[in-house]
């Protein structure tokens, strides 16, 4: 369960008054999700999702609110922040930042089919295009500095072969110059639990809180490492081909992106191997309801190294 902040119908009714979005009819806490408190809010006009941010400072959030507003205005399927009569989307509730967004259709799929994979790839490419004229920039919270710091923390916990793998990969990634690759807005965490489907119809991408300005093809690498693999982390060729063809039908890779593609797949594997290792070795009591397996991304990293 991930409802950390309990809200009553009456306080949400009062909180909603400046939004002019109809009469509150129902409020339901959302169990899925591990970071924030989320509620489905149903009014006489529409359904919304209210997020109470449990960790972020208020000042961290305008970038994400502006980004989702920009993307949804550009036709990207994602939550659209709802503003009050003064045009303000971010408010507070129980002293914590709170945001209401449109409710997307559907639910996440654990075993995506080829039609769904194609839809994810097309939407990602459209998102990358739509992000090109979003002029705010945010750095990657899971970039080089974070990699080095997190590796230092987990390194002593690892077996010798893992330490070597980690050390070599950090050095390899540190030595790359990706400055010639197209940069823009990336989602940064486009996992299966962050995409909603209504049947084969894509409802939208959610959870933009790792979005930042980074290498566009790195976002593609994160996605294919998640959407196009079997249980061992090896690519399923058919899925990978569908994803890459669909993505590149909208935005073809540049020669520099093609050259660096294997390294980007490794960078994407390293990022999630590290975060899962950290969560595994430093669990926060009562916080992580579904510990995710670090070995999966260790396997992916080993597999992608073997591709080069
Ligand atoms: N805009 C939305 N529309 C529909 N459902 C949503 C929306 N945002 C979140 N959800 C639902 O809430 C769940 C948790 O959201 P998520 O952003 O993953 O939370 P957390 O940041 O706490 O991990 C999602 O799995 C999804 O079911
Ligand atoms: N989707 C990721 C979790 C998000 O990253 P984190 O840095 O917040 O752990 C995963 O499945 O590992």
UniProtKB/TrEMBL annotation:
State its Enzyme Commission number(s).
2.7.1.39
Q: Which SUPFAM superfamilies match?
A: Protein kinase-like (PK-like)
Q: Which Pfam families match?
A: APH
For this UniProt entry, the molecular function terms from Gene Ontology, in alphabetical order, are: ATP binding; homoserine kinase activity
Q: Report domain Aminoglycoside phosphotransferase positions.
A: 27-253
Per its UniProt entry, which superkingdom is the organism in? Bacteria
Q: Which reaction does it catalyse?
A: L-homoserine + ATP = O-phospho-L-homoserine + ADP + H(+)
> Quick one: which pathway?
Amino-acid biosynthesis; L-threonine biosynthesis; L-threonine from L-aspartate: step 4/5
Transferase among keywords:
yes
**Its Gene Ontology biological processes?**
threonine biosynthetic process
Keyword tags? Amino-acid biosynthesis, ATP-binding, Kinase, Nucleotide-binding, Threonine biosynthesis, Transferase
Family to which the UniProt record says this protein belongs: Belongs to the pseudomonas-type ThrB family.
Q: What is this protein called?
A: Homoserine kinase
């Amino acid at each position: 369960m991930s409802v950390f902040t309990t809200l009553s119908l009456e306080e949400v009714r009062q909180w909603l008054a400046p939004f002019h979005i109809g009469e509150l009819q129902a409020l339901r806490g959302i169990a899925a999700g591990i970071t924030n408190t989320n509620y489905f809010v149903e009014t006489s006009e529409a359904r919304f999702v209210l997020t109470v941010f449990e960790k972020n400072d208020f000042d961290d959030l305008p970038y994400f609110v502006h980004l989702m507003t920009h993307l949804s205005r550009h036709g990207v399927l994602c939550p659209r922040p709802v503003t009050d009569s003064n045009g303000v989307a971010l408010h507070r509730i129980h002293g914590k930042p709170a945001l209401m967004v449109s409710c997307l259709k559907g639910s996440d799929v654990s075993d995506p089919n080829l039609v769904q994979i194609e839809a994810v790839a097309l939407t990602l490419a459209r998102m990358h295009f739509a992000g090109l004229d979003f002029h705010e920039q945010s750095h990657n919270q899971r970039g080089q500095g974070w990699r080095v710091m997190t590796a230092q923390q987990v390194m002593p916990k690892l077996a010798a072969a893992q330490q070597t793998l980690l050390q070599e990969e950090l050095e390899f990634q540190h030595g790359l110059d990706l400055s010639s690759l197209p940069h823009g807005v990336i989602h940064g965490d486009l996992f299966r639990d962050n995409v909603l489907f209504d049947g084969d119809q894509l409802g939208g991408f959610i959870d933009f809180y790792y979005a930042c300005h980074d290498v566009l093809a790195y976002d593609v690498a994160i996605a294919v490492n998640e959407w196009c693999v079997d249980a061992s982390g090896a690519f399923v060729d058919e899925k990978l081909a569908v994803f890459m063809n669909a993505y590149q039908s909208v935005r073809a890779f540049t020669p520099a992106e093609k050259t660096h593609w294997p390294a980007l797949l490794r960078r994407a594997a390293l990022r999630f191997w590290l975060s899962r290792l950290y969560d595994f070795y430093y669990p926060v009591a009562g916080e992580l309801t579904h510990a995710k397996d670090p070995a999966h991304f260790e396997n992916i990293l080993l597999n992608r190294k073997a591709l080069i």
